[in-house]
Write a structure and sequence with these properties.
The chain is an alpha/beta fold. It has two domains: 2-52, no CATH class; 62-212 and 248-285, Rossmann fold (3-Layer(aba) Sandwich), CATH 3.40.50.720. The chain is built from seven helices and 13 strands. The chain has helices spanning 2-22, 71-82, 139-159, 181-197, 224-234, 256-268, 279-285; strands spanning 27-36, 43-52, 62-66, 87-91, 106-110, 126-131, 164-168, 202-205, 210-211, 213-216, 219-222, 254-255, 275-277. A seven-stranded parallel sheet has the order 5-4-3-6-7-8-13, with helices on both faces. It has a two-stranded antiparallel ribbon with strand order 1-2. It has a two-stranded parallel ribbon with strand order 9-12. Helix 3 (139-159) runs parallel beside helix 4 (181-197). The relative contact order is 0.11. Mean pLDDT is 81; it is low at 1-58. It comes from Physcomitrium patens (Spreading-leaved earth moss). This is NAD(P)-binding domain-containing protein. It holds the Pfam family NAD_binding_10.
Length: 289
């Protein structure tokens, strides 16, 4: 019993050291020294030393939205602006084809994620990044857009000392492996990279069908006509979503404004824990449950 207690105490000390090193951007490392009783195996005394350094992103307040001119990205930009956050957007098209007043308050940057050397300097005053980058096409194209492009962005942000990174990924509906293989493979590749580069401040959102008003050229597609009633039905079927095989298909659609709200909160609020947030977690944090 004494040996077991000693092991638990040592594990507790280890957790204290880890939390000290990652819980505050100004703390880089801590070292604990302790002696152990040979009779009980329990630490008798400990002293902790923390080395404090300046955070590489101290004083930064700007949010960079990757793919900010797209469907989810524009809602993320609007949500961040409503919170008084300085917003920049990076995309291949730069400024979107919208003339809404809010767009005048965004810094629109034209850039290609596949060539980070051309836009890396834009990260110098950025505290958090939200990636809404994704797309469809052939398996090779989807792997490149959803995977490689986001991996490049994650690495560039980590190298620049950005504090937090949020990736809008996708729920796994459990479809056969040959269905949109490149899409899901790309998303998971980016997720793995994020968990490696931002283990304590990276958040992965996995919404299913995202509904709302989607602007396509001069047309507006009311995706909420389908999404809203399905959301009302499926959000009360959480138990059914745990059923093997078919359960993954029974997750509720999520409002695009909810995804945007949760993405911004996850990027700017250190109390949001790192890791994967599923559909239910998104709806709960967004106030839809």
């Amino acid at each position: 019993m004494a040996g077991r207690g000693g092991k638990q105490a040592l594990q507790h000390l280890h957790r204290l050291r880890v939390s000290s090193s990652v819980g505050d951007g100004a703390v880089r490392a801590s070292h604990a020294r302790y002696s152990v009783s040979t009779a009980t195996g329990v630490p008798l005394a400990e002293t902790t030393e923390a080395e404090t350094v300046e955070s590489t992103s101290a004083g930064r307040k700007k949010l960079l939205v990757l793919g900010g001119s797209g469907y989810v990205g524009t809602h993320v930009c609007k949500e961040a602006l409503s919170k008084g956050i300085s917003v920049a957007s990076l995309s291949r098209s730069g400024r979107p084809g919208v003339a809404e007043p809010w767009s005048q308050d965004v810094e629109w940057i034209k850039g290609d994620l596949f060539h980070p050397s051309n836009w890396r300097n834009e990260l110098s005053d950025v505290s958090a990044v939200i990636s809404c980058v994704g797309g469809f096409g052939s398996n090779q194209q989807m792997q490149k857009i959803n995977g490689v492009a986001n991996v490049q962005a994650i690495r560039a942000a980590a190298d620049a000392g950005v504090e937090r990174f949020v990736f809008v990924s996708a729920h796994d509906f459990g479809l056969p492996s040959f269905v949109m293989r490149g899409y899901y493979a790309g998303k998971r590749t980016a997720e793995d990279e994020l968990l490696q580069k931002f283990p304590y401040s990276g958040v992965i959102l996995r919404p299913g069908f995202i509904h709302g008003i989607r602007q396509v050229g001069t047309y507006k597609l009311p995706l909420n006509i389908i999404g809203s009633p399905l959301e009302l039905v499926f959000k009360n079927l959480k138990a059914a979503s745990q059923v093997p095989v078919v359960g993954k298909l029974l997750v509720p659609p999520v409002k695009v404004v909810t995804v945007a709200k949760v993405a911004v909160k996850s990027a700017m609020d250190n109390s949001v824990p790192p890791g994967v947030m599923d559909v239910w977690g998104i709806m709960r944090l967004g106030g839809d449950l």
